[in-house]
Amino acid sequence: MTVASVLLALLGSTWLLAVIEGWMTTGRLSPAAPLFSGLAHLGRESILPRSPDRVFFEAAPVLLLVVGVLGMAVLPLAPDLIIADLGTGALFINAALAYVLVAVIMAGWGPDGAYAMIGGWRFLGQLIAYSMLIVMPITAVAMRAESLLNTAIVGSQAGLWNIVYQPLGFVLFFIAAMALAFRAPFDLPTAEGELGGGVDAEYTGVRLAVLRLARLTLVVTLASATTVFYLGGWHGPLLPPWAWSLVKTLAVAVSMLLVGHYLPRIREADLMRWCWILGIPLALVNIIVVGLLILVVP
Amino acid sequence: MSFDSAINITGARQKRPSVLQKLVSRALARNLGCLIVPGPEIALAHGLDVTAAGMRTSTTPRDASVLMIVGELSEKMGDAVAVLYAQMPRPRAILIVGGQTPSTLPGADISAGLSQKGLTEAVVRLQRAFADGAFVASPEAFDADVLHAKIEYVCPMHPEIVEDEPGSCPKCGMDLVAREAGESTPDHDHEHQHHGHKHDHEHEHEHCHDQDHKGHHEHHHGHDHEHSNEHQQEHAHENAAAEYTCPMHPEIVRDEPGSCPKCGMDLVAREDAEDEGASEEGSGHGHNHQHSESDHHSEHEHSGHDHGEHDHGGHKHGGHDHGASGFMSMIEVTKDLPRSADGLQMDWLEVPFGPVFPGLPGGLKLTLTLDGDGVTEGQATSLAGMTIEVEEGEESEEIDVETFIDHLATAMPLAPVSYRLLACLAIEQAAGLNDDQATTQARNGGLERERIASHLGWLAQLGRQLGFAWLTQRASTLQLQVREANRYRLAELEPALRTLGTRLGRTPLLKSRLKDIGELSSEFSDLRGPLARAASEGGDAWARLWQRLAEITASLDLIKASSEPALPSLRDIGDLSGTGEVTVDTPRGEARLSLKLERGKVKSYKLDTPCSHHIDLVPKLVEGQELGDALLAVGSLDLSPWEVIS
C-alpha cells in the first residue's frame, strides 16, 4: 500500500511537472500532453545506432529511472508514508544518486557517437563540481537532526524549517541538485546548442520515452529531497501531511525548471571554478555555523 | 477508414490499425516534431511561426516526425538533408515550404506556399494524415547515394585479407573488423593514433608527467619493457605468422587465440620469432608484470569499445584493430600525438557540426578537430552560399533588371530587403537617376526595420545556442512582429525592444559566458558592420551583443525620424546603359555591388558581401577554445551562409 501510494505520488508529480514544462515551452496548458507525447513515442520507431554498445545503450535510460525511484523510496511523504525509513536514509540518497553519473556516461558511451560521447564525459566533470555540494549540506542537515533517518530530519524541522535555520545550505544544495539533474543551466551533457542533444541525441521511440520520464522523475526526487532536508517535509497547517509534501516538492521542481528557463547555460570551467572556490568553502562555513548554533541554542 | 488520397506519408510501415494503434496515431498527430531545414532562423526570417502552426520545433532528427524544408536548397544541402531524413524515426513526413524537393529525397508529402497561412493549412493536413494513419509502406526503404559507404571486413593482423562479409580470418582465425571501403590500409602509426584515443586518461597522464616525453626512449630503456614489446607487436602486424601468449605468463604460447590456462586472461598476439628478432631495445625481456597487466587491461578497454565517435562524427578511419596490438602502451600510442593545451596527448577527432545544427546558422558547416572537449582547429564552409555565374568580362546573358533584383533578394533570405535595396540603388546609379528624398527615406526605413528584425533573429539564435529559452522565445516573437510592422506598430513595440537590453544586462551568467569569447580586435582588417563597430569596445562576443542591441535602438530612432518603412522597388529606368557601384550597410556589414547596365538589362555584376570575409575568421576564433566557447564565438559572428560567395 505504502509502496503503491509513494509510486503513485511520484508518477503524479512527474506528470504535473511534464504538463508545466509543456506549458513553458509551447505556451499551452494541456493536461493530456504528456500522455499523448508518451503514446507518440510508442508509435515511433526506436532506432538502434549503427554500432552501439548494446548493454550500455539499453540499460542507461532504465538505470536512470531506477535511480530516481530508489531515491524516492527513502524520502517520507508523511510520518508513516515512506517505503523504507532507513537508518542511513540521508546517506542512501547520496549513494543512489551517484548512479546518475553511471547512467549518463553509459548513455554517452552506448550509442557510438561523438556528441553523446562528449556529453557523457562532460558529466563526469560536472560530478566533480557538484558532488561535494550535495554531501556537505546534507551533513549539516543531519547534524541538526542528530540522525540520518529522513523522518527524523523532517521531525527536527517541526519548529523551524532548515531553509531558515541554514539558508546557505539550502542554496548550495538547490544548485547542486539542479546540476545533478542536468537541467538548464547545467545541461552540459545534453546541451542542444553545443552537442545537438548530447547523451539524449541518439535515443528514439520507447527508449526516448523512458529517458524523458527518467529525467523528470529525477527532478521530482531531487525536489522531494530538498523538501525533506530544508522545507520541513510534511509540516504545514490545514492540509494533510502528504499533501504538504507534494505541494512543496512540486514548488521546488517548478522553480528548478523556471531558473533554467531564464538563464543561459553555464560554462563548464566556470561551474567547476565556482563550485570549488566558492561553493565548498561556503559549505564548510555552513557546517561550522550550524555546529555553533547547535552548541549555543539548546 | 478514409484515406486522404492526397497524402500518403512515405516511409511508414503499413498496418491494419487496431484501437491502440489508432490512439497512437492520434497522439502522433498531436505531437508532430518538426526539424526545420536549413534552420529555424530561416523560417523566422520568412515570417513562419512553426509553433503557432501547431508543430513542435525539434532540434534533432531523432526527435522529429516532419522534415520541413524552407525555401530552395543548394545541391550540397540536399545531400545533408538526405542524411537527416534517414536519421528520423518512422513514420516521417516531408513538408516543403516554398521550394522544390531536393533530388536526394523521395518527394514531398505536402507542399505549401511560403506564408504562415500556407504553413498552417499544410500542418492541419499533415495532422489529419497522421491521425488517420494514412501511411503507405514505402516501396523500398529510403536509400540515397550519399548514405552509401560500402563496408568491407579486414583482418587486423593480415591486411591482405579483405572480405565482403563479417567472419574470421582464414589465416589466423581472428574476427574480421569492419571498415569503410575505399580507404587505403592505414599504416600502423596512423592506426595506433586512433586506437590510443582518450580512454585511458589516467594512465597517459601519469606517464606524461613523470617523464620527459621527448626523451623517454633514451631515458627509460631500463624499465620501459613495454616499449620494446610494443615494437615487437608492431612488427607482428607485418609478419604473417603470429602466436599467442599470456601477458602474465610468458611461458604460455599457443598457435591460436584463446585464454590462458593459468589465469584465464585472453591471450594476446605476438611475433613468432620474438627472441631472435630481439634488438637492443627488445633485449630487456623480463617483463614488468605490473605494467604488462595494466597495459593488457587498457587494451581490453579498447577492443571492448573502440568505437564511438569516429563513425558517427563522420570520422573515418581504418578498422578497429582488435587485439592485434598486444601490450599497448599509452606512451607508445601517444608519443607522436600532438599535445593539447592541458598537456595531455590524446587522439583528435574530426567532428562535423552542421549544416543543420541547433547551435549554428543553417547551411553553415563547421568541421572541428576535437581533442576531448577542446578544439584544436576548425574550418567553416557554407553549403548554402551563392555562386556567381556572371563574372565581369565574361560573355554572359543579359538579365532583366526586375529578375536580377528578385534573384538577389531571394538568394539572401536573411536580409532580402538590404540586397533588394542594393540592387535597386546600383541599377539606378547605372541608369544615372538622381536620388529622390522621399524614396530614400522610405527605403532607409525598410532597411533599418530589417536590421532590427535581423538582430532579433540573431538574439534568438544566441538563445538557442546557450539553451536560454526565454531569450529565444522573446526575440523570436518580437522578430515576427517587427518584420512587417509599420511605424505605428514599431512605436508600440519600442518599449519591449528597449527593455530587452535591460533584461539581458541583468541576466546572471550571461556576461561570464560571453566575455572574452571570440575576441576580434580592430587589427583584423576584414571586419565589417557590427563586428567592426564592436571591435573598439573589446571585440568579444559580449561587446557584439551590446553593439547589436545598441543598433536596434538606433534603428528605432532612425525610423521615427524618417517616413513609413517600405520595401524598395525599382523606379523606372528606361533603356539606359551605364555602370553603377553602391554600398549598403546590411545588418551584417557593408555589402558592395557594382554592375554594368546595357539597354536596361544587367550585363554583368560583382558582389562583395560581409560574410564572405567574416567566414575566414572562424579558424582563428575556434583554435584552442573549449567546444562550447568555440561554437559561441562562431555564432557571435552572425554569419549568413547565403551571403558567402564562392
Automatic annotation (TrEMBL), chain A:
Is the keyword Membrane assigned to this protein?
Answer: yes
Q: Which InterPro entries match?
A: NADH_UbQ_OxRdtase_su1/FPO
Which GO cellular component does the record give, naming just one?
plasma membrane
Q: How does it sit in the membrane?
A: Multi-pass membrane protein
UniProt GO MF annotations = NADH dehydrogenase activity
Pfam families, sorted:
NADHdh
What keywords were assigned to this record?
Answer: Membrane, NAD, Transmembrane, Transmembrane helix
Q: Name one GO biological process term.
A: aerobic respiration
Q: Where in the cell is it found?
A: Cell membrane; Membrane
Q: Which domain of life is it from?
A: Bacteria
Q: Where are the transmembrane segments?
A: 55-78, 90-111, 123-143, 163-182, 242-263, 275-297
Stated family: Belongs to the complex I subunit 1 family.
Under PANTHER family, the record lists: NADH DEHYDROGENASE SUBUNIT 1 (PTHR11432), NADH-UBIQUINONE OXIDOREDUCTASE CHAIN 1 (PTHR11432:SF3)
Specify the protein name. NADH dehydrogenase subunit H
TrEMBL record, chain B:
Q: What is this protein called?
A: Ni,Fe-hydrogenase III large subunit
Q: Taxonomy-wise, where does this protein's organism fall, top ranks first?
A: Bacteria, Pseudomonadati, Pseudomonadota, Gammaproteobacteria, Oceanospirillales
Q: Where is the Heavy metal binding domain?
A: 153-177, 244-268
One function term, GO molecular function aspect: metal ion binding
Originating species: Vreelandella subterranea
Compositional bias of type Basic and acidic residues: which residue ranges? 181-192, 199-238, 290-312
**Residue segments, region Disordered:** 181-238, 271-326
- Recorded superkingdom: Bacteria
Q: Which InterPro entries match?
A: ComplexI_49kDa-like, HMBD, NiFe-Hase_large
**One Pfam family this chain carries?**
HMBD
